[in-house]
């Protein structure tokens, strides 16, 4: 619910837009382990929205999300859902 409050304050839907409040709610939601909040914080630190641009901090938030996704894929009982595809520079 903290992530959604952060989203409401960030976008100004139904409340007066406040990037400071959005950052607070996103931060607490990320500390609680919410991957969407970690993605939001990663993006904010990458693009310097209400925070200084810090690529290392953004990367740390994105790594946490990647670990959650990798864990879900590895415990998937349906089978492997990831197919490796080689992308070539020429194309």
Describe it:
- Helix content is 62%, strand content 0%.
- It has 4 helices and no strands.
- Helix 1 runs antiparallel to helix 2 (19-31), helix 2 packs across helix 3 and helix 3 (35-47) packs antiparallel against helix 4 (55-74).
- The longest helix is centred in the C-terminal third of the chain and has 20 residues, at 55-74.
What order do the helices and strands come in, and which of them pair?
Layout: H1 2-11, H2 19-31, H3 35-47, H4 55-74
Helix pairs in contact: 1-2, 2-3, 3-4
Question: Summarize this, please?
Answer:
Helix content is 62%, strand content 0%. The protein is mainly α.
State the secondary-structure class.
mainly alpha
Biggest sheet character: none
Distance between the termini: 43 Å
In sequence order, what are the helices and strands, one letter per element? Answer: HHHH
Q: Compute the number of helices.
A: 4
| Low-confidence parts | none
How much beta, percentage-wise?
under 5%
Keywords, separated by commas or semicolons:
single chain, 91 residues, mainly alpha, 62% helix, globular
């Amino acid at each position: 619910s903290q992530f959604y409050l952060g989203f409401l304050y960030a976008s100004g839907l139904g409340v007066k837009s406040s990037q400071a409040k959005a950052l607070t709610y996103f931060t607490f939601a990320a500390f609680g382990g919410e991957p969407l909040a970690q993605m939001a914080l990663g993006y904010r630190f990458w693009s310097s929205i209400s925070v200084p641009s810090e690529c290392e901090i953004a990367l740390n938030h994105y790594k946490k999300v990647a670990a959650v996704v990798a864990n879900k894929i590895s415990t998937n009982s349906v089978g492997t859902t990831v197919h490796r595809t080689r992308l070539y520079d020429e194309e």
